[in-house]
From TrEMBL:
Cofactor note text: Binds 1 zinc ion per subunit.
Any one Gene Ontology BP term: regulation of secondary metabolite biosynthetic process
Entry coiled-coil feature ranges: none
Protein name: Ferric uptake regulation protein
Length: 146
């Protein structure tokens, strides 16, 4: 899916939710849409400074908070990085395969895994508020000898 179509979908969702998709938020969204791996806040800040020289850490963190609240991005907790979600029409638990070789991150959607995890948590009296399951390893390209 093209970055432009992702931006149009995000704008539509923001309009529907009564949220402002400001130019800074859109620029950060576009930066995340242009990569298949997780990106840290300070790396995003440096990229953003190419078009917004006055951008500060607070600028990027406010944009990331907004994008997370709207369900547009997932946070990779283990590396404190962010990844654009291509299925942001609805909030959902994230299951991420993170390649330790090339950094590629693949998002999965397993209802079976989600239901089992929730069932195990409920049995322990735990209420899940946010779910991100991360698995680290090697992607198909990195594991296959060249």
């Amino acid at each position: 899916m093209s970055i432009e179509s992702l931006v149009l979908r995000a704008r539509h969702i923001c309009e529907h939710n009564g949220a402002r998709f400001t130019s800074i938020r859109e620029k950060v969204f576009r930066l995340l849409a242009s990569t298949q791996s997780g990106v840290g806040a300070y790396e995003l800040l440096e990229q953003l400074k190419s078009t917004e020289p006055a951008a500060k850490p607070a600028t990027i963190y406010r944009a990331l908070d907004f994008l997370t609240e709207q369900g547009f991005i997932h946070k990779i907790e283990s590396s404190n990085a962010f990844l654009l979600c291509h299925h942001f029409e609805h909030h959902h638990p994230a299951q991420l395969l993170i390649c330790q070789g090339c950094g590629h991150v693949e998002e999965l959607h397993s209802k079976v895994l989600q239901q089992e995890f929730e069932s195990l948590a409920t049995a322990k009296g735990f209420v899940i508020k946010q779910q991100t399951i991360e698995a680290r390893g090697l992607c198909q390209h990195c594991v296959t000898p060249k």
